[in-house]
Amino acid sequence: MFNILNGIRVIDITTVVLGPFATQILGDFGAEVIKVENLNGDMMRAVRPGKSDEMGAGFINCNRNKDSIAIDLKTVKGKEILYRLVKTADVVVHNMRNKTAVNLGISYEDIKEFNPKIVYCGAQGFGEQGPSADVPAYDDIIQAASGLAYLNADDSGSPRYLPTIVADKVSGFQLAIAVLGGIVNKLRTGKGCFIESPMFEGLVAFLMAEQLAGQSYVPSTGGTGYDRLTASYRRPYPTADGYIAILPYSTKNWIEFFTMVGRPELAKLEIVTNAIKRSENINTLYEKLNEIAPEKTTDEWCKLLHTANIPHTKVNLLDDLLENEHLQKVKLFEEYQHPSEGPMRQVRSHYSVTGVEKSADKPAQLIGESTKDILTNLGLNNEEIQQLAAAGVIKK
């Protein structure tokens, strides 16, 4: 972890992927993240594969650099523990519906009574001001609601989900940015705030940066949709022995590509030499790439395109990434010893930071692994901790 946010304490009341992905980024930047779980733990712990019941791979990969405390927040004493933690914290983060937070007694209004300077960030499915505020939401729901599933439709027009938890992870990045913005505001003004970063609005904003298109103008100059991205021939192209991504981008790229493959007549076309005409006819040009690509092997294309400095890459399988020369050189995949799960591999934080000290990452913890230490630091003695455990308020 990078020692950038040292001294910032984050109370993390998040589950599954969205919230944990966001708070792991904060932990990677050096914040002290206290993950508050119920006595059964984050439900993501059960998602397989996994060597043990408490530690599925997906959970481990979103929960490093955190200390786990297990509390039953439905009990009076459980809430009292949380409130004591809040008094010591800078940030509270959750990804539940605001209605649920209110019912649990951990809404912004509840929390700021104990710490008026708290940065409180919530990432529910739909914004509080809209009619869908209380609708439950997970990644698939937001992919469908945002229009992303239709953008990814198959050849028959049937909508499809992307085979990655894209809505959760995009929303996780947005939530992490919200927290960082709140922290900067607190350091600048000394005041807390409540930032809501809903999934639906967040993913729509993410998509519509380019997809709003003609509807950006009033009156409209056309419909939504970025033609280049929805072009039928925008795809990896078949080579003589596999697939390759080829993306001539500039006018120079396109002219050089058609010239070097022996199609000088194409290089002179207005839809190649004129950037606006090229944008309007991009699918025609992509169709030409699709026709030409089978003439060479993937390796032959890579050598030729590399020499011409035209954007390209072979199409990797996920397994290929583990042996990828670049990723090996930058050491993106790290092997380490997990205290309970044994030898493991992780994707390190993708950031590189110069001028800041680094500390060793803390592996994802078992349910309530740090409960006793955290409560001791709050001033509870061993007998009080034992009583809370016996009463089913905590797990240690």
What layout of secondary structure does this protein have?
Blueprint: E1 9-13, H1 18-28, E2 32-37, E3 50-52, E4 55-56, H2 57-60, E5 66-71, H3 76-87, E6 91-94, H4 98-104, H5 108-112, E7 119-122, H6 139-145, H7 148-151, H8 166-189, E8 193-196, H9 199-211, H10 227-230, E9 237-238, E10 243-246, H11 251-260, H12 264-267, H13 270-273, H14 275-280, H15 282-292, H16 298-308, E11 312-314, H17 318-321, H18 325-330, E12 333-338, E13 342-347, H19 371-377, H20 382-390, E14 394-395
Parallel strand pairs: 1-2, 1-6, 2-5, 6-7, 7-8
Antiparallel strand pairs: 3-4, 5-14, 9-10, 10-11, 12-13
Helix pairs in contact: 1-8, 8-9
Describe the protein.
The protein is an alpha/beta fold. The protein is 41% helix and 14% strand. The protein has helices at residues 18-28, 57-60, 76-87, 98-104, 108-112, 139-145, 148-151, 166-189, 199-211, 227-230, 251-260, 264-267, 270-273, 275-280, 282-292, 298-308, 318-321, 325-330, 371-377, 382-390, and strands spanning 9-13, 32-37, 50-52, 55-56, 66-71, 91-94, 119-122, 193-196, 237-238, 243-246, 312-314, 333-338, 342-347, 394-395. The strands form four sheets. The chain has a seven-stranded mixed sheet, sandwiched between helices. Strands 9-10-11 form a three-stranded antiparallel sheet, covered by helices on one side. Helix 1 (18-28) links the parallel strand 1 and strand 2 (32-37). The longest helix has 24 residues, at 166-189. The radius of gyration is 25 Å and the shape is elongated. The model has no long low-confidence stretch (mean pLDDT 97).
